[in-house]
Amino acid sequence: MGLQVENLTVYYQTLRGSVQALEDATFSIADGEIMGLAGESGCGKSTLSNSLVRLVPPLKLIRGRVILDDQELPVADVERMNAYRFRQLSVVPQYAMNAMNPTRKIGRMTSELLRSKRVDYRAALPEIKRRLDLVKLPQEVLKMYPIELSGGMKQRMVMVLSTLLNPSLLIADEITSALDVSTQKAVAEMLVEFRNREFVKSIIVITHDISILYQIADSIMIMYAGQLAEKASTETIIHSPEHPYTKMLIASLPEVGVRYADTRLTGIPGKPPLLLDPPVGCRFRHRCPVAFEKCVEAPPFLEIAKDHFVACWEVFRKYA
Ligand SMILES: Nc1ncnc2c1ncn2[C@@H]1O[C@H](COP(=O)(O)OP(=O)(O)OP(=O)(O)O)[C@@H](O)[C@H]1O
Ligand code: SF4
Ligand SMILES: [Mg+2]
Question: Which domains does the chain have, with CATH numbers?
Answer without folding.
Answer: 3-319 (3.40.50.300)
